[in-house]
Amino acid sequence: MQPNKITSSVMIIGTALFAMTIIAIVPGSSAISCWECNSETNRHCFDVEAGAVENISKIEPCFREMYKECSLADGQQPFCRTQEQTIQGKKRVIRSCAHERASEDCYATKTPSVHTKVCQCFTDGCNSSGSLFANTIMIVIVTITGMLVVFN
Predict the structure, then answer these.
(1) Nearest to residue 134, comparing CAs of 15, 44, 12, 24?
(2) Which residues partner with 116 through β-bridges?
(3) Could you tell me which of 2, 73, 82, 1 has the C-alpha nearest to residue 34?
């Protein structure tokens, strides 16, 4: 293969990876559905499984009732949020729809009696117990791969 054809192929692949990353990061205009629960009032909130949304009709009703479509608020696109809290040694999980984004996808706060980790995500059901960081990791991997291909 000639050097120009290799460079051209690398640029096409790099551009495609970059486009896929942007599509994965930017939320669509359609409604999103998220898990909404609080383990303080619903013990099943700890156990929401990643991938359950693909077979939502087959999961137990106690889980199905926690999966809800989010609504727009003040014209802002909704997304999913998970809060993991430890309050005076007691663990709690809160999964919800949200509308005001944080500057980072995940952050933590800590006081002497309350430790909180909050993560936001932008695809249907992404705030399950197993997928909290999977989307973020995938986006980082695709972005780095794309950058390596384009800039090498």
Answers:
(1) 24
(2) 85, 109
(3) 82
Domain boundaries, the chain: 3-151
pLDDT tens digits for range 7-32 = 555 556 655 445 444 444 444 446 89
- Find the largest Cα–Cα distance for the chain: 65
First to last CA, the chain: 17
For 37: left if phi > 0, alpha if psi spans -120 to 50, otherwise beta; the answer is beta
- Torsions phi, psi for 142 (to 5 deg): -65, -40
> What DSSP element (H or E) covers 23?
helix 3-25
Burial of 113 (0-12, 13-18, 19+ CB in 10 A): exposed
CATH of domain 3-151: 2.10.60.10
pTM: 0.63
Quote the CA–CA distance of 25 and 123 in Å, as a whole number.
9
Distance between CA 114 and CA 94 in Å, rounded? 14
Q: Are 114 and 87 in contact (CB under 8 A)?
A: yes
Tokens 């009732």 belong to residue: 65
